[in-house]
Structure prediction request, 854 residues.
Amino acid sequence: MWRYILRRIFVQGIPVLLGFSFFLYLVVTLAPGSPVTHLRGVPNLDSAVIEQRKAQLGIDQPFLVQYLQWLGRIVRGDLGLSFDSARRPVADLIKERMPATITLSLASIILGWGIGIPVGILSARYQYSILDYLITFFAFVGISIPSFFFGLILLYVFALKLNVLPAGGFFLAGEVKTLAGYISYLCLPALTLGLGSIAGVARYMRASLLEVINQDYLRTARAKGLAERIVIYKHALRNALLPILTLLGFMIPSIFSGAVIVESIFAWPGLGSLAIQAVNERNYPVIMGINMMFAVLIFLGSIIADISYAFADPRIRYD
Amino acid sequence: MRRWLMVVLLLLCLSVAAAAQEAPKQGGTFRYGITVNPRGMFNPILYTEVYDGLVIDVVYDGLIYIDRNLQPQPRIAKSWEISEDGTEITFYLHEGIKFHDGVELTAKDVAFTYMTILHPEYTGVRYSNFNMLVGAKDYKEGKTDTVPGIEVIDDYTIKFKVEEPHAPLLVSFGYGILPAHLLEDIPVGELEQAPFNLNPIGSGPFKFVEFLTDQHVILEANEDYFLGRPNIDTLVYQKVAQDAIPIYLQQNRVDYVAISADQFAQVDAMEGIDTYVYEELSYNYICFNMRQERFADRAVRQAITYGFDRQTYVDIIREGFGIVANAPMPTASWAYTSEGIDTYDYNPERAAELLAEAGWQPGPDGVLEKDGMRLEFEFLVPEGSRQTEQMALLFQQNMEDLGIKVNLVFMEFSAAVDRVDAREFDTFTMGWSLGVDPDPYGIWHSTSLWNDPGFYNDESDRLLEAGRRETDPAKRKEIYGEWQRLINRELPTMFLSYGVTISAVNQRVKGIDTDPGPLGPLVGRELVRTIWLED
Prediction:
């Protein structure tokens, strides 16, 4: 097992991340637009100031030099300085916002799996019933509805009309930080971000359970007189859950990228607004830093999914 | 009897209200909503973003501040003197002003602040505001170690000298004064990475307390402020989501916030919230590339302007929040004039006439042609604003009626700027936010970096140079009046509208400017010091 993990990291992971960083840097710097565009707002500006700024940022160098300099810093654990006027370390910018993004993503994963799995089971157990049709209908609505639209609906209903939840944001300055308060701020963004996963997980769970239910060994189980409850929850469910575990690995990237959009709707203090701002401003070190961090997280996510698969399914062995 | 009771009650209410107005209350937290996070560059000579400026405005004081009529008023300087020939400004400083760490602010700090801007390794963008000081250029180029144009006379007197009078200079002295004792040991080139920028110490009415990324900035009243302690205890810049602003107002989570035109009706109807609409120092435009022969023809530029229904653009697309513009000097500026300015009211017949007189004839496909040139061109539109995109569609439609074919090219902002900088455009639309001084030199002089239309006109250059040299405001206004008439006639760009800002203020906030000028109900951040909060 350990050999497998090490092989995944060194033989597979590092070359993939290297290649990814190269192409990302290429795409990011090739895109039209320049990191010094904001200087356009300054009248009376001397062109020398623009050239000086470009030299300070290092963007007067050819692409390969820029990339190698960036790579040289990153292997030493330095993500560089942001290109904006404050020139703060990219690592600090990410660190300040990371906890909020992780919290939101975890909350939405818990919602997705916590609600999606039971709903999927119900849907499969009562296949072709009214309940099943209703669940299927809402699952498709949930998959199809754009998150920014769903977020605005939630804001309109719960914050504006019912006035029971805050309109996004986070604790006001001076507000006492309680667990209930934390949940009330987290509630709407997590639901918005989690909606797609709830619906997706429910559909997968239904399909996976239905597939298992028709297997021979379940017929055997029923034939020997086991209660239906035990048949489903003890024998069928365990096997049906396997594909759902892999799904977790696949869904992590989409949850993180979804978080970027949801955060900007709710002014959630995570990486979202930083990422969007960085792209608009061609802030290369910040774009690279955030993307590389996501790449590493996604990579780790897929390893975890593979390993948990091995734990759950005795037929799978990594040697 | 009942009527009498009513009158007595009414009088009572009025007197209570009057009393409340007379005696400002102390205490409370004032929440100012912001939609964009500050960067954390709380240094008056290095910041470039408006939202960092909000913090800087209250943490630091400058030699002067700008009042509601855009005029300089004494602040750290209790007065100033300008020499007869206009080449020397002497500032006399208040004694006993303290930085937030208790150290006294003197002329040495003032000199340090401005010397840093002129330093060869300075990384900010303010140098060109002061490069006319005597000896500044030599110092910037590293030829000398001193700037004769900045002279500390004694602890409370400092003199600035210029080669020739430079009218816009005075209002540039509003930049916050830095504490020399905390920064003078840091090499100027490394100043932008100094921890100081995240924990600023100034001499202003509020002390910096905390900056939490994407959440808030907290500032507290400076008990020892030399003009008296602010009435509120705490000032909070609170990050809010643009779409959720009306809800924030309704839930009393912000006291003051700028709102967009499409939020106006909803917010204006809210109980306890007042809205203020005021003209700002900005305009937007459609720029012609006059380097192309077809746009070098003034008749074409005028005809296009006559042919575009800008009033409909302002009334319908901007929902009335704007003013049709005909020159690059906003109505809110003291240099604005309407005298002799042609308003180019929507008149497609006049437009067609002008084009026909200039020799433009419809080609086989109906598009106007002349000497092998066609009036078919690209219109570069930066994405992201619904109003701009609708304006582009209206423009395309209006032009089609004249036999002009407009091909819309929607582009992400930064990419569009690339094309404009490379001069690879036919026409594009953008806007300008202007400074307090009306000087248009930096945008319109033929040597300016931002002369996007390629407008090279000797008369315009002469007026712009004269406007900078003239220190008498009345004469200066005349010069800029003449310049506006010239631009209005030549139309190097078509001016669309002057911008307005809408502020929403909770009624518990007292002491704001209820008839706001271009700086708004708080006159920039000036009134944050004196407003008070009703329970």
The mean pLDDT of chain A is 88. Chain A has two domains: 2-75, 105-269. The CA atoms of residues 76 and 294 of chain A lie 19 Å apart.
